[in-house]
Amino acid sequence: MVDFEAIRAQFPILDQKIHGHPLVYLDSAATSQKPQCVIDAESEFYRTINAGVHRGAHELAALSTEAFEQARAKVAALVGANSAEGEEEIVVTGGATAGLNLLATAIGNASLGRGGEAARRFAVKPGDEIVVSEAEHHSVLLPFQELAARTGATFKWLGLTEDGRVRTDDLDEVITERTKVVAITHVGNTTGAITNIAPIIRRAHEVGAVFILDACQSVPHLKVDFHALDVDFAAWSAHKMYGPTGVGFLYGKRELLEALPPANFGGSMVELAWMDKPAQYMEPPARFEAGTQPVAQVVAAGVAAEWLMNIGMENLEDHEKAIAAELLKLGDIDGIRILGPRENVDRIGTVAFDVKGVHPHDVGQFIDAQGIAIRVGHHCAQPVHRHFGLFASNRASSGIYNSVDDAKALIEAVSKVRAFFRAE
Ligand code: PMP
Prior knowledge:
Blueprint: H1 4-8, E1 17-18, E2 21-22, E3 24-25, H2 36-48, H3 59-79, E4 90-93, H4 96-111, E5 129-133, H5 138-151, E6 154-158, H6 171-174, E7 179-185, H7 197-206, E8 210-214, H8 226-229, E9 233-237, E10 248-252, H9 254-259, E11 270-272, E12 280-281, H10 295-311, H11 313-327, E13 336-338, E14 350-355, H12 360-368, E15 372-373, E16 375-377, H13 382-387, E17 393-397, H14 404-420
Parallel strand pairs: 3-15, 5-6, 5-7, 7-8, 8-9
Antiparallel strand pairs: 1-2, 4-10, 9-10, 11-12, 13-14, 14-17, 16-17
Bound molecules: 4'-deoxy-4'-aminopyridoxal-5'-phosphate (PMP).
4'-deoxy-4'-aminopyridoxal-5'-phosphate is lined by residues 29, 95-97, 137, 139, 185, 189, 214, 216-217, 237, 380.
């Protein structure tokens, strides 16, 4: 049995009062808090071995490189990716948004004929198709919409069921022989719904398309294995998985990373550079890691990955399932509508809700006054909100440190909102 109370005690930030109330943090979908071991790892790195990686002959540079590569291996282990030298499948990025833009740009470069013969499998031509879903965060929607605009491809999407799940009943019509790229979220950041990705991946591969997974909201909550899922690429951020801000990771099947042209150019990604002919780029992952890397943050993210593996993602899933069950009782309150599946099946503890007659910012402030942190707004997912006939909503989202009591505290606070604002 994992002692989740002891785990909560590892988060110093939670040990404080907000407006006189003990802090209840229910905004982990935006960013998670950090355990002491992650905070320590970052400062320890700066205290003892701070140096650039993969360059310099001095001892600190060697130690830094070793710590960086070990962190990459830990992150790879968390998601079932390869990390042996020459086989690496994890690229360090500035976050999920940076990783998704890197992919869209690299595919765009392949479409311009960059990257030679190997990269032709990624090339998108006018009249080809790029497919996303209506559940996407803007960090998927916009880079791939731009890619479609740049390449002349048709932009298409999988719609949503009434309760906000990505539809898979019309896959054959939406994903066709002309589809080159399919980019889909693993878990909706508004609905909390886990996408039924298996048939989408099968269909994408059947037509020869590349399948890209937005794993931002799955890696911190579920046991994921990218090999088993057979995704081609996946992007996520460290700051939502108890790691630092400013870094993220891009998984790619090794053979695909080897075939993909670079997207960012600069130091540390080139074997040979000349004035009068094109450069010769390094093998992945270095080819995609131009510039000085956020080494301290990557090292700390590695500690977060190891810490999660020690707790066991299955244990975390069970723990958060109980919190989700409690949060879903929000839907029983008069005037509250949940934007997403009501049943605690194939979903996580991210529950967005509308309070009839009360603006989300008013709800957020009322809840905050009681020490409870939730997110309000459109959560960078405007089409999802439009699907529900809204522009904004309130969102409670669980993390490893939450308890069923936290969800109960939220429910009690939310149940008073409409009376307070005299909402009809
Ligand atoms: N996709 C999803 C599903 C997300 O929840 C987020 C973060 N809100 C992102 C992408 C973008 O992540 P980041 O802002 O860390 O780059």
